[in-house]
Structure formats: C-alpha cells, structure tokens
Design goal:
The protein contains one helix and 35 strands. The protein is globular. The protein has one domain: Methylamine Dehydrogenase, Chain H (7 Propeller), CATH 2.130.10.10. The chain is an all-beta fold.
Length: about 425
C-alpha cells in the first residue's frame, strides 16, 4: 500500500457549507447519501402537465446538480466526428438554457452511448462546477461558464480510459476536489492500480495521490462517501480491483480495505454507526455465487476479512445501484429492478417490490418517499412501509421503454429533477419556489 503526498498545505478547519436551501450539489445529494431534508414534495405527476414544471429535450445518463437557481448537467453534443461532451447550465425554475461549455474528446475509445457518464459536482464556497470527462480531463468551470483550470489526467497521471466509459463523479472536501481511476505511469505510480487523486479546487495542483489497492480488473464509477470514523474523516469507495477502500481524506493514507469481487466495484457504500453496507454483482472470492450484499466493520484496520463481516447475503446481485439508509432500514435495488428493504442490524429481508427488469439508477429518499427510475423507462414515486412498499405514482416516459432512466434523481427547490436518455423533467410546481429560510 502506498500513498504519495504532493502538497501538505491544507486548511485544517472545516469551511462552513454555503448551501442555499434546497441545493443538490453532489451526485448523491447534500450529504452524499441519496437523501434530502426537503418536505412537501410531489407525490404524483404526469406527462400531460400535472405537476410537470418543465421538460427540456436534453437527455443523458448523468445525474444533474443544482445550486441556487442553476442546474448543471453533463451530456453530449454532436455525432460522429463532431461528438463532444458538454456541461449545460439551465435555469432550475424554467428550464431555459443559460450557457454551455463543450469539450473535445481525445485519447479515449469510449463508445458514443457511454459518453458523459459521471455527474458534475458544485463547490458551494466558490460556486465552481467540476466535471470529469470520459477522456480523463478534470475541469473546473465558473458559474458563468468560464474554464478556471483543467487537468488532463491521461497525460499527467497515466489515467486509463477504457471502452467501458465508467467514470467516477468528483467529490469536494474543504480545499480539495477528489477523483479516482485506474492509472499507470512511472516511479511510485509505475504499477497499474486504481488510484485516488486529490487536487486543490482553486488551482488544480496535486495535493496527494493514494494507491491503496491491487491489480485492477475494470474501471469503475463507485461514488465516494466521506464519513467520520473514530474521529477521523475517511473517504470510502469501491475500486477497480474488486475492493472497497477507506483512506484518510486529508492525506490519502490507507485505513482499511475489503476485497470482495473478481471485477470492479461500481456501487457506493453506506456508512453508519461504524458499519459499512457494501454490494456488487460479480463473482465472489469465496463462493461460486454471483453478487453480495454485506455489512462490515468500518472501524477496522488493514485488510478486513470474514471476522469483520456482521452479516452477508451471497447471491444478491446489486452491481449498479447504491444502497440507501432510512433509520434502521436499508433499501437496495438489484440488477433486475427489484427494490428490497433489509434490517440494518441483522440483514433480515423486510419486503421486496418489483419495478421492472433492468436497473442502473440509485434510489433517492425525500419527504418519506423514494424516487427512482428504471432502465425500462419508468419513473416511480414509492412510499416505503415497515412490511411493504406502496407504488404511489408510476409514469412511463416513452413508449415501450424508449426513454431509459440511467441516472439518479436530484431533489431541489421543491422539485424532483429526472434525466432520461431523451429529456430532463422537472417534477413539481412551475415558477420560482418559496424556499425555507
């Protein structure tokens, strides 16, 4: 295990979050856990206009983020030789496009349908937006659409961008913007590995590089979560080596790792009370069954093993959707679009609700309801009960599943923002909302 310090000049005090009421600045929301504190959210809507604030024909596979009255979305532009990634800025209340920033694709063989996979992240302090393209360019863009800085991680760090197109969404912590990916270079980074890179959010200068894992099998898009474990701020995320890694967010120093899959880990991790909920849908290391849902000891050190597993469900194939915690319940979607509820402490199954046949998007919890779309092209509003799940509202976005939902929803300003492969929908009342103080 190796971690490299590139710059040790940090602000040691946490900068107060400058969030506007109703912001959704990160892929998994304000707390990076897929939940929102907003209330009085829509329980139903329709394509005919009921509770549909606006619809814009800009589709994609990336979750939008919202800061103030601006919505930012990473998507595509053009076709064939003119294909580009672009960051689009919309008025969150009306859907009007305010500006866009286009980026040429180079040094990558990612196919067109997998372009613009990662979600942007907004820094509440500066208002800057950070995007990580499939060609390995990490770009800081101002709220006005001007490029602040850009790092080509392929040229500077030997990042590998594969045919899969899987790209991790950036995460902001204090003065750092952190990304990860498979890279190979020279010196300390000569060995191919899944690495974590922390850069100064204002200048792009490297602050640390961490290489906590082994030989990678894949590129991945596991969303990182930053949590407090034993008084230390820890970043936890899946890697391309089939392992969940925990590193100190200020330095990149490895804390623990849990090896569990013979392919890369794409799902995120839920951490609560020093327990981490992990999942995948590939081949297990100790059984012929595919897939695993497990609770492990997040307060451990070094290589975690069987003694650190509190409970596990082998054969549970959840390889794309990130789990969701609601009190003492865990919600997780398997690859077949079945939503399950489990007891957090014991792993006991509480109920199961089928939503379709194929699933990529992660669920979002707000106002006592779960908002989630499926790759079959339906968007659901659900009310989880102790013993069952109630389907409150179900909307088919396109005929015969022609509009897939690959991205998670975003909750902001009293609305639910949903991206399909064809369009983005703002579910809620029209106009400028009255936000809580």
């Amino acid at each position: 295990m190796r971690f490299t310090f590139m710059n040790t000049r940090f602000f040691l005090l946490m900068i107060p979050a400058l969030l506007t009421a109703g912001d959704w600045t990160d892929y998994r929301g304000p707390k990076r856990d897929g939940t929102s504190p907003e209330t009085n959210l829509p329980s139903a809507w329709s394509l005919k206009g009921d509770n549909l604030a606006w619809k814009v024909p800009i589709g994609g596979r990336s979750t939008p983020v919202i800061h103030g009255n601006k919505l930012y979305m990473l998507t595509t532009s053009g076709k064939g030789p003119t294909l580009q990634e672009r960051l689009v800025c919309l008025d969150a209340d009306t859907g009007k496009q305010l500006w866009e920033h286009r980026m040429n694709l180079y040094m990558s063989d990612v196919p067109p349908h997998r372009i613009a996979w990662s979600a942007p992240v907004v820094d509440p302090e500066t208002g800057n937006i950070y995007i990580y393209g499939v060609h390995g360019a990490l770009t800081a863009v101002s709220p006005a659409g001007r490029v602040v800085w850009q790092n080509s991680m392929v040229e500077e760090q030997g990042l590998v961008t594969t045919h899969g197109g899987r790209t991790v969404s950036p995460v902001i912590y204090q003065d750092m913007v952190i990304v990860s990916g498979v890279s190979t270079g020279w010196g300390d980074q000569a060995r191919a590995a899944h690495r974590f890179f922390a850069m100064n959010k204002r200048t792009g200068s490297m602050m640390w590089v961490s290489t906590p894992g082994g030989r990678p099998f894949d590129t991945t898009y596991s969303p990182p979560v930053i949590t407090d474990i034993n008084g230390a701020k820890i970043l936890v995320a899946g890697g391309g080596d089939g392992t969940v890694h925990a590193v100190k967010v200020m330095t990149g120093e490895p804390v623990w790792k849990f090896e569990m899959s013979k392919r890369g880990v794409n799902t995120g991790v839920v951490v609560f009370n020093n327990q981490a909920i992990v999942s995948h849908s590939e081949e297990n290391l100790d059984t012929s069954e595919m897939g695993l849902l497990a609770s492990i000891n997040a307060a451990g050190k070094g290589a975690l093993g069987a003694k650190d597993i509190k409970w596990k469900i082998p054969g549970f194939q959840a390889g794309f959707s990130t789990p969701l915690l609601d009190g003492d319940r865990i919600f997780q979607l398997d690859n077949g679009a079945n939503l399950f509820a489990f007891d957090f402490l014991t792993g006991r199954q509480l109920w199961k609700q089928n939503l379709g046949t194929i699933q990529k998007a992660s669920p979002v919890l707000a106002d006592g309801k779960i908002y989630v779309g499926t790759e079959n092209g339906k968007f659901f509003i659900l009310r989880p009960r102790n013993d069952k799940c109630e389907i409150v509202n179900e909307v088919e976005l396109g005929s015969g599943g022609s509009e897939q939902v690959l991205a998670s929803a975003a909750v902001a300003r009293g609305r639910i923002y949903v991206v399909s492969t064809n369009a983005i929908y703002a579910i809620g009342k029209k106009g400028t909302p009255r936000l809580p103080r």
